[in-house]
UniProtKB/TrEMBL annotation:
Name of this protein: Uncharacterized protein
Top-rank lineage group of the source organism: Bacteria
Keywords assigned: Membrane, Transmembrane, Transmembrane helix
Membrane-crossing residue ranges in chain numbering: 74-95, 102-122, 128-151
Keyword Membrane assigned: yes
Length: 165
């Protein structure tokens, strides 16, 4: 049953991060870009001393295109996180009956959910969004481990024996 709770908790963490992205919209994307440019400027090829405000003032139309693109990236990654969160939620709820197929689906969903969360967590995303991605990754991996522990296998055998008795 701990695997069920972990799968649901991983799904909840992913949904919280996605909600933060969807609610933040373009303002979140713009803030995120400004922080990234001001922090990483020289390491991404910008001249020393140039800031996000300087770039924005040079070409407001181009700046808006960049902000729109970043907002789109964040929304797509949030959408992927929601998809895998729903996968984990449904598989976790199915695993309450000790179904092996549900444990397999939790394992596959947790592994596939690493993709959007790794992209989110390691792409200079906003701190709150990165934190929920790290939490979703960690809890998802805990769910995978818990699914296949010997105690869980004993629980599955006991449930099957009770059904057929």
């Amino acid at each position: 049953m701990a695997a069920v709770g972990a799968a649901i908790a991983a799904a909840a963490a992913a949904v919280v991060g996605a909600v933060l992205v969807f609610a933040g919209g373009k303002e979140l994307a713009e803030t995120n870009l400004k922080e990234a440019i001001d922090t990483l400027g020289p390491s991404i090829g910008l001249p020393d001393g140039i800031t996000a405000a300087d770039i924005e003032s040079l070409s407001p139309a181009m700046w808006q295109l960049v902000v729109d693109e970043r907002a789109q990236q964040l929304v797509v990654r949030g959408g992927m996180a929601v998809f895998f969160a729903l996968w984990l939620l449904i598989a976790g709820l199915c695993a309450r009956n000790a179904a092996t197929a549900a444990r397999v689906l939790i394992t596959i969903g947790a592994v596939f959910s690493l993709l959007p969360h790794v992209l989110i967590a390691f792409d200079h995303s906003p701190v709150a969004v990165s934190a929920t991605s790290f939490a979703a990754m960690a809890i998802g991996l805990v769910a995978v481990v818990l699914c296949w522990l010997p105690a869980n296998n004993a629980y599955v055998r006991a449930r099957k024996a009770a059904r057929f008795a």
